[in-house]
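Rotation project, supervised by the postdoc (A.L.). Task for the rotation student: set up a whole-complex structure prediction and record inputs and outputs verbatim in this book. Inputs entered:
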Amino acid sequence: MGKKILITDPERCTGCRLCEIVCSVKHDGVSNPALARIHVVKWDNEGFYLPMRCQQCREAPCLAVCPKGAIRRDEALDCVRIDYERCIGCKLCVQACPFGAMGWDAERGRVFKCDLCEGDPQCVRFCDMKAVDYVEADRLSCVRMRQAGEQYSALMRRYGRG
Amino acid sequence: MALDRNIAYIDLTTGEVRTEPIPLEWRRKYIGGRGLDAYLLYTHCPPQADPLGPENALLISAGLLVGTMASASARTHIMAKSPLTGILGSANMGGFFAPELRWAGFDHLVIRGQAERPVYLYIHNGEIEIRSAEKLWGSGVYDTQDLIRRELDDPETQVLCIGQAGENLVRFANVMTGRKNAGGRTGMGAVMGAKRLKAVACRGTRSIAIRFPEEALEYNKQIIDQVVSTKVSQIMQRWGTGFIFGVTNTTGLVRCRNFQYNQLPNSEDIECENLDKVSIGLDGCFGCQVHCRHRYIIPEGPYAGTYAQGPEYTSQGAFGAEVGCRSLNTVLVGNHLVNDYGMDTLEVGSMMAWAMELFEKGILTEKDTAGLRLAWGDDEAVIELVRRIAFRRDIGDILAEGPLGAARRIGPQSLPYLIHVKGMSNLHSDERPTPALALNIAVSSRGADHLRGRPAIDLYNLPLPVLERVYRNPDGYTGPLTNSYSEYEGKPRMVQWQELVYMAVDSLGVCKYHTVFLSPNHPQFKEFARLIYLNTGLEFSEREIWDAAERCYTIERLFNLREGMTRKDDWLPDRYFDEPTRLGLPVARGKCIDREKFRAMLDEYYRLHGWDENGVPTPETLERLGIAALKPAA
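Outputs recorded:
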């Protein structure tokens, strides 16, 4: 099985934000979107919803900016992780992340980010619409191509052969 | 934890704000949400208060499980004395306001007094600020929320507000949040308007600690699976509540042309399948996987391109069957307008249908309507009437008074055509073939209403063992049950049971589509007990939740009795007894309600609740429920 990646699909998202609270309950035992590693960004005047979360970048700015080497890649899970033993709480990573995916828990005085729930992301497990999904990376393009090609292929099948 | 949220007492006349913790004893007795609201209304609204005066108490609350690991725990409850009916005003809505209120530190707001100039409340992490709403006054529901988010420079703020209808004191104005979440019925928007309270904005980042997080997370998954595995949820996930219209209309359970027919023939255009043409996707309330309504774009006409949400089953009736219209675009536009103006779609539909019947009979003429011809099925007249009601222009000003207020102005000859109970219009449903559903609307504590105690599963003719499993618990009911919806026997129990299960979910802040409403297999008392325990640590038995619900429902009854309601108000319009249905399937055709059998049902219903033959809770009942200090009116 190939490595999996977390993907989001705004076309499927109904904007319910269940992903946010299962995330904070799983990680912190509390319901609080401010502590969630995923957030549904909503354009309420248009009805457009986009779940945003850590992209687990290959060239991760949070990792690059960390002065203590407290952020590292977990190759097995294809995930960027925080080593709290080394973290000094300087928050440079919070400022460096271009997606806003590195959070700061003011109460506990520490940064936090998505850890893919050790390979069983709860946001994915709870999303009935599969607007957040965890899929094998090497199959993703194939699936997308099939989806994108559906309309074209339907036309071709109908008219293409004259 | 989930029990550390506060209650705020806000006086808009003086600007005083006081915050207090919620005593644990109140949790045990009234749970929260609607249940605790009922107690607070009884104690904070003085007898015979003017609903539109400063003395009326407006309660805004989040249920006990809102924002926790309880699926669809999204519900805000609103209570006050109703300017529509003069008795209990009560409205429940989804969306995202209630969880935000809890994250901001509050479960209940008790709002009294009247501001001198328009204001809105801004609630932020324990702080409550009264801010000017002068610039917002006159704005619709969509714009108001947008303007407040801009003013606060925070798009994550959740706003509950009124539109123009609430400002204009339309007696069935709603409190709204989001595009279409409606605190509808009983005119709570007019109470806000009278207090010059345009909105309540909320933003919070205070954690709600879950008592047993791992177990609560797993149990929530189980509950979600239980709900979405039922056929009815799956249909709703795909089509929204609009699917109900096809079912009830085919059977003959839909009021058409006010009350002249019980079916709208040739209704294809407004059936839910057509929503696919305009839908850009479905929409979920907080934490809900049922996502029962569409996001849609109006396709044609003067409102083309407008983004709105819905339309619900109720709007297919209001802008379709009731007024004899058959155009999807009219349903889409009407639904959008009532949501943006902030009015009750059910009441608007019923008032329009009644006015059209009066026009047909010559009781209303073009002189009364400033030239507007109120002809059945006239799409343009319907949309124009919606605007006139919201802005109280000519005939709209009369209809904005609600059923009894409008009838007083039009004259007694209009009364026989009115389909109302206790001064509130009914949904577009026709209960003549279904005695259980008829009893529900007659006895509901907020006037004609299906969300107070409708035993909707009675319509399925389920096998008796299924009904026994549902309706015998948790108090060990041993009386009769019948599974044909034409029967009278055993139906009072179904209504009483549904009243209490709905009281329980409304107090927990969970959606009715997550309990026994449209499916016998959805969560109920047993699941509620587990959800409360895992999320809050409070131990309730099934029976204790039942008892709390009974206590709170009885308080609603006491409030209504205090405000002058009597047994004769638990009754249906004469047309239910005298005019048989004309259309529909054989089981629904030629039906009307039998007066004597209905009277017997009412007696049995009172007995089940522990109320005397006049519908007054007996001293023993009050003692048993621990509310003897709350005396019924003499």
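Student's summary: The radius of gyration of chain A is 18 Å.
Supervisor addendum: Helices of chain A lie at 18-28, 61-65, 92-96, 122-126, 137-160.
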